[in-house]
């Protein structure tokens, strides 16, 4: 014990040296919430440092050359480890020792020359293992995989693989899926690919091995062909009639499902294939991405037996002799057993009625992605000989159909039709009335350029897909409908719920919906799921509040609330409705604006009233005039410039007195007094104020004829207009006042302070009521106006 403790620092130093000097580790913290760390495409040369509790680690597309003993030691929680496309040449025997929880291991496309069973010793949980694309040449003979007791998916082999020996697969009881690449195989030990029980799916990529070594292929097929196994032969060349010999082994194994993928073949090979498999229980044959050099002349196999061959799945078939490909009547021996036929994306443009005649049991036809037209579909779906009477599914999606009328009249004769997929055609319109089989439940009219719906739609439908059209409204009643898909149209509102009493699911994303209300939704009596994201929502307060608080009470938004974003107002465009915060002002815009306007009007009225009451305008004008007066230079008048003795200022009210009494009395006196009256002496065409100013400047005195009326209504003008004259200054004596009637000083408005001052500081002449005193008045007046006073 003591000894060990003493040595500890040395061990630590050693560890430090290994870690610190030999190579410096990079860090990778690109991990998500599930602790999956994606470190792919990082030019890494070593396994990087990641969080210790990492669950997944993607190291694909790096430059890692080796995995050392300690590289992964700390990551005991790893479930997924992806090392696809690195430069691995070396993996330490104990590299995966602490990965007891690892479920997925991908070592594909590396440079591993030797595989070691030691790697897998602790990988008791491993379910998927990918060893494709490494230059190892041998599998076995040591039992490579026997520790992988839970393995479900195994991918092995490469173009370098030459020898396969028994290697422990026969101990694996859970293997479901196996992919083998082995174009260069030279030897294969019987039983090597046989697991403890038949594997569910086996995919073999053997390229030209069928041609080169059919015997070896036979041995492989013998091991993997079982009635439970789906066998996929891919990337192969099967041209000669000998290359199909191995399938005899498959027949013996009782294979039922056989698919050719990315394979080149010939009429000859297919004929011998059919002969070799004669009498087998084959029930499914698939041809995907198959290149057929031939014209479908397989009648040498005419007398074979394929009673169980019910399903044919053909996709992307490329026929070299396409033009000569005949009516297939010669294949009647096969056709009469078919229940399900798919011919997808294979340039099919017609099936002659003589051929469909043999499709006695057909229930399912998928002719999608072909070249059917309105004309050829009439031939293809011809029912005149009683054909197609068991058909329940018809898929003519992605063809060149244009007439919905033709299609519906053909479908009407398919008495058991349940599914009809006519999506991706170009109907544009539909007739007003149509006949349909009463059995029809599913109709797919997606992407057919429809502009308008009519009562042509079958009322028996339970699922209707109208996505990706140009529809704006929906008025047909479909009482049985449970699913309606309106995605990618131009609806402004939800369709009326009352038309669909049984609708449970409504998809209406990518339309032009502005909003939906509680009322809209509650009209759908049975609606449970709604997908209405990516619309042009108007984020009003009602809608936002309804969406946030109540929409979940009515339906489940299956497409996720994040997809519900505002379109208007502009300031909120693109914001998720859930994240929008509207202010009180925004929410109550109209009342708020009204209140504001009313308040402004009230304030204005108040100001006007106050101005009026306090004569504020008047004071303002006064101030202005006063300022002007202060600026104006004093005028010095010489007696010669004075044309008049007096300028008479009076109210219109008192005009009679002035004209009848004052003027005659003064102008006819001896000596006459020259008076200036604005009505008489003003020069026409001049501004009245200028006239007055002018007159006052040319007059020796200014005679104010004061009456109650003058004071209250006219004075104001004087104080304003003439305040800049000396006349209203108390130090100037040019003003002469005549009081026509007694005026109480208190009645003079307070703001006419100058008038008050003048009246206080100066004596004024009172017009006597009594005639006897008038001569005295006149003489006083004349004296006051006389120029030679002093
Ligand atoms: C990791 O990131 C790359 C791109 O850097 C991406 O292609 C890859 O799909 C990601 N892997 C996983 C498992 O998400
Ligand atoms: C693989 O094994 C062979 C023979 O056992 C050996 O010669 C070769 O060096 C090994 N290669 C590597 C990279 O370990
Ligand atoms: C392997 O099987 C083939 C036939 O399938 C047989 O001819 C051959 O003798 C077998 N070889 C061994 C070693 O069992
Ligand atoms: C199809 O198979 C050929 C060999 O027959 C192969 O070279 C090619 O890569 C395969 N194509 C695909 C897409 O797998
Ligand atoms: C196999 O091919 C040869 C010529 O390539 C032909 O003569 C022979 O009849 C073919 N066998 C079968 C069974 O089709
Ligand atoms: C019809 O074919 C299209 C295209 O191949 C496919 O997407 C669709 O699922 C098919 N419809 C049915 C009902 O199988
Ligand atoms: C209708 O057809 C479209 C296009 O082929 C397809 O994407 C969609 O899934 C189909 N709808 C249904 C309900 O199967």
How would you sum up this structure, described in words?
- There is one protein chain.
- The chain has a 23-stranded parallel sheet that branches. It has a five-stranded parallel sheet with strand order 32-31-33-34-35. Strands 8-10-12 form a three-stranded parallel sheet.
- It has 790 residues and is α/β, with parallel strands linked by helices.
- Among the domains are: 223-334; 632-789, Rossmann fold, CATH 3.40.50.10140.
- It is built from 21 helices and 35 strands.
- It is elongated.
- The longest helix has 26 residues, at 589-614.
- Bound molecules: 2-acetamido-2-deoxy-beta-D-glucopyranose (7 copies).
- Residues 207, 235, 237, 262 line the site of one 2-acetamido-2-deoxy-beta-D-glucopyranose.
- One 2-acetamido-2-deoxy-beta-D-glucopyranose binds at residues 241, 271-272.
- It is found in: Membrane.
- The chain crosses the membrane at residues 588-609.
- One of its GO terms (cellular component) is plasma membrane.
Summarize, please:
By secondary structure, this protein is of the alpha/beta class.
What helical percentage do the residues reach? 25-40%
Number of helices: 21
- Principal-axis shape equals elongated
Biggest pleated sheet:
23 strands, parallel
| Ligand identities | 2-acetamido-2-deoxy-beta-D-glucopyranose
Taking the alpha carbons of the first and last residues, their distance comes to 140 Å
Assign the CATH topology of one domain.
Rossmann fold
What share of residues are in beta strands? 15-25%
Average pLDDT: 86
What does the radius of gyration come to?
Answer: 54 Å
CATH superfamily of one domain: Toll/interleukin-1 receptor homology (TIR) domain
Please give the CATH architecture of one domain: 3-Layer(aba) Sandwich
Strand tally is 35
Family: Belongs to the Toll-like receptor family.
Protein name: Toll-like receptor 2
InterPro entries: Leu-rich_rpt, Leu-rich_rpt_typical-subtyp, LRR_dom_sf, TIR_dom, Toll-like_receptor, Toll_tir_struct_dom_sf
Main location: membrane
